[in-house]
Amino acid sequence: QRRALFHCDECEKSLCEDCLKHHSRFLKTHKVFNILKAQVPLHDRTSTCSHHPGSNLSSYCSPCSTPICSLCVSGPDHIDHKITPIADFAKKNRVRLSALIDSVALLEQEIDD
């Protein structure tokens, strides 16, 4: 086990250098930053809605494939859409992503052998 020096905002996951290498290869659009050089401590970071700047993202809209705030949930753009609490969506996808990263690491190891 290595020390996590990086953090991905989208995955809400801390990464060591090896994990960062795999993560960055497959998730190029994710914003990853060095924890030691962070301007704002991790526990103070929140994501706000691009449509409602004062509102925190609280849900995930599956048909739109986007995180949304409570104002978006009640607005006209997401009527009849499948909405999931963002914590549930993140947990489910963290497990899935971790399994995929493990699979890639095993494949890389097989190739190297």
Number of strands: 6
Category by helix and strand content: alpha+beta
Query: What does the overall shape look like?
Result: elongated
What kind of oligomer do you see?
single chain
Catalogue the unreliable spans. none
Strand content: 15-25%
Order of helices and strands: EEHEEEHEH
Ends apart, CA distance between termini = 21 Å
Residues in helices, as a percent range: 25-40%
Strand order of the largest sheet: 2-1-3
How confident is the prediction overall: mean pLDDT? 83
How many helices in DSSP terms? 3
Radius of gyration: 16 Å
What does the main sheet amount to?
A: 3 strands, antiparallel
In brief, what are we looking at here?
The chain is of the alpha+beta class. It has helices at residues 17-26, 70-74, 86-112; strands spanning 6-8, 13-15, 32-34, 57-61, 66-69, 83-85. A hairpin with a 4-residue loop joins strand 1 (6-8) and strand 2.
Task: Describe the overall structure.
Strands 2-1-3 form a 3-stranded antiparallel sheet, with helices on one face. Strands 5-4-6 form a 3-stranded antiparallel sheet. The chain has helices at 17-26, 70-74, 86-112, and strands at 6-8, 13-15, 32-34, 57-61, 66-69, 83-85. A hairpin with a 4-residue loop joins strand 1 and strand 2 (13-15). By secondary structure, it is of the alpha+beta class. It is elongated. The chain has 3 helices and 6 strands.
